[in-house]
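Q: I have 142 residues here and want to know how they pack in 3D. Can you give me a structure?
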Amino acid sequence: MIVFGYRLPLFSSLVIWAILWEILGHTDAKLILPPLSAITSRIFEIVPTESFLKALIITGKAFLAGSLISVFVGIPLGVLMGLSKVADDLLLPWVNVFLSAPLSALVPVIMVVVPPSTVAVISLLSIVSSHELLTPHCEYAA
């Protein structure tokens, strides 16, 4: 970052934003933007609690399951689509639906199709993780 012709270290922009955040947090905008120091101290109160650790483990398991499903299903499907015109013709409409729809729009759909549970979270993570894996990147051999 260059300020008034002086090159500042890369980390300095974060320090500047943190200072501005702290200053704004002590104004009337406190309800919308609490001070950074209050957030930091609250993090140190929340992280060691048992409920946070349980939630972290649940999230980690869902993320791992969703990622594994997307890798072990998404990569073979992407390769299949790249190698087979028939598979590409069958699967490309679905890929286009998931690529064109914003991922945030899929959340209510998943919650309707799959009842709210860990399975719903894993399903959503699988779709989000497969987003790029299902995109065909191969040319067909003519």
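Q: Anything worth noting?
A: The chain has six helices and two strands. Residues 21 and 36 are 6 Å apart (CA to CA).
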